Amino acid sequence: MSLKYRIWGVRKIALKIENSLFNTFFKRKLGNKVNIFGFPFIFIPKGAQIKVGKGIRLISHSYFSEPGISHPVMIRLLNKSAKLTLGNNVGISGGGICVQTEVVIGDNVMFGANAFVSDTDFHPVGVENRRYSKENIGSKPVKIGNNVFLGMNTIVLKGVSIGDNSIVAAGSIVVKDIPENQIWGGNPAKYLRDL
Question: What are the residues facing 147 on neighbouring strands?
Fold first, then answer.
């Protein structure tokens, strides 16, 4: 583990420098200031649209996440027509968002360690040229409502909508819509109970 985060005075200085550099570099693309804890990977092609609310926290180092994380936060818009909206006070711990078409994340959404959201299959389903083809790749928008909690290692796949206040249990794979105020879990995620 990096010493720069384990020593309080050094950690404070390192975080200030990292946040200053990150926000200077991404200010025009993101609009609002983002609080980072370790450097995330952000890929925004020219022409892609990203809207970022206030109070965003991206945790990209295991020191700042109690269960630890597998990798830094990864936010990748895959083409110039991709659209990503992050509401206010969204927290992501070592997770990721990949956008081919559109992903909308509401206010106060929490990504548990390594939670991942994608609106695309990344490759064609057909066996012919699956590895190299950029054609016939399935993609459907994803919408996550306000106050949603995605548990550790959750995966949300294309076309899914998750209603306000709902919780997805750790390790779940979400393949269909979740209404508001419910707890779902499993692979594939299923209804467990109302909140």
Answer: none
Give 147-189 pLDDT, tens digit per residue: 999 999 999 999 999 999 999 999 999 999 999 999 999 999 9
pLDDT of residue 55: 94
| Domain coordinates in residue numbering, the chain | 3-194
Residues, the chain: 195
Return the amino acid letter for 122. Answer: F
Q: Is the pLDDT of residue 80 over 90?
A: yes
Rounded distance between C-alpha atoms, residue 41 and residue 115, angstroms: 15
Quote the pTM value. Answer: 0.89
- More confident position, 44 or 11: 44
Q: Report in angstroms the alpha-carbon separations of 23 from 55, 105, 144.
A: 13, 21, 25
* Catalytic positions, written as ranges: 123
The span from the CA of 173 to the CA of 190, in Å, is 9
CATH among 2.10.109.10, 3.60.15.10, 2.160.10.10, 1.20.1250.20 for 3-194: 2.160.10.10
* E strand intervals along 21-126: 34-37, 41-43, 49-52, 56-59, 74-77, 83-86, 91-93, 96-99, 102-105, 110-111, 116-118
Instruction: Please give the structure tokens belonging to residue 59.
Output: 């945790």
Percent of the chain with pLDDT over 70: 92
Return the ∠ at Cα 124 (arms to 130 and 72), rounded to 5°: 90
